[in-house]
Design brief:
alpha+beta; single chain; 147 residues; five-stranded mixed beta sheet
Length: 147
């Protein structure tokens, strides 16, 4: 059974590695690890910007979930966005992803969030089904703009 925990500053390299693997798997080019490190520091140790959840099994990190805090009028204050969620292919369908997600949801609620949102890949039918099993409702596409 994996250990599910809030990530600390000491977990930086493992968490960043898992996020970079996610981005590569999705077909993107991840930023260099050293560019991600300062952002990670704001999330480590249950930071002010959000938090990171990790699964560790036998000394090997197998899953990551990063959560950002934001505020909006529609949510009447703080809510959370799951930014990255990744399970190592060798650990998929083992239940660890759902454990990590549930830990993240419970912690977001404990930190004052009454709403949690996320986006999935463009052709993310499998991911959508996973999140719906966890109680999420499909409310439409997530769009992006960059200057």
């Amino acid at each position: 059974m994996p250990d599910i925990k809030l990530a600390t500053a000491q977990d930086r390299d493992a968490a960043i590695d898992l996020v970079r693997r996610l981005l590569t798997e999705l077909g993107g080019t991840p930023a260099p690890a050293e560019a991600m490190a300062p952002v990670y520091e704001r999330f480590a140790d249950d930071g002010p910007s959000g938090f990171v959840v990790l699964a560790e099994d036998g000394g090997r990190f197998t899953a990551v979930c990063t959560v950002s805090f934001v505020e909006a009028l529609r949510s009447v204050g703080r809510y959370a966005i799951i930014q990255e969620m990744y399970v190592d292919p060798s650990a998929r369908s083992s239940g660890v992803g759902m454990e990590v997600l549930q830990f993240a949801l419970d912690h977001a609620v404990a930190r004052g969030c009454a709403l949690v949102e996320l986006g999935t890949p463009y052709h993310g039918e499998r991911q959508i089904q996973f999140y719906q099993r966890a109680g999420f409702t499909n409310v439409g596409a997530r769009l992006r703009w960059r200057p």
